[in-house]
């Protein structure tokens, strides 16, 4: 008899959160709702994730993995920064357009209940900003872009430009062309960092 393995608790929790967010909203996706949908015990939830926001951030990292792998491959093949950033910006906008409720939850989870930014540690190896910082550092080392601005600052600037477009799109999707925003933000950013 072939033994089938049960999905890992972490994956069950993430899948439950994703399902709830795709059907409802950030507010409905409570820890209790995720526990009920995933079928895990409360202790198992908190063993894997300290909070609802931590699950949402894990979902965002999981969604970003293909884009990160593609960018790393392109970097190893000496692709120019412009191609890599364009792909990343378009990947972010495409994903948010395909998963607007989940995208809104990701942005909502970056603020606490008072509306104060609650950023994760940008130096964490799992951080998307840390990944972008690595991209910019490699581009600086290759002499593609200016070196007078720390790579992490460039990462924060670039993501800030993209997030502003996402905020506008989530508030008034009919008035914001998200793909155009990504294209123009990338172009403007690249113009500012060129040698």
TrEMBL record:
Keywords: DNA-binding, Membrane, Transcription, Transcription regulation, Transmembrane, Transmembrane helix
Stretches that traverse the bilayer: 151-171
Annotation: DNA-binding region: 30-49
Entry coiled-coil feature ranges: none
The organism's place on the tree of life at top rank: Bacteria
GO molecular function, one term: transcription cis-regulatory region binding
Domain HTH tetR-type: 7-67
InterPro entries the record matches: Homeodomain-like_sf, HTH-type_TetR-like_transc_reg, HTH_TetR, Tet_transcr_reg_TetR-rel_C_sf
PANTHER family, per database record: HTH-TYPE TRANSCRIPTIONAL REGULATOR BETI, HTH-TYPE TRANSCRIPTIONAL REGULATOR RUTR
Protein name: HTH tetR-type domain-containing protein
Species assigned in the record: Kiloniella spongiae
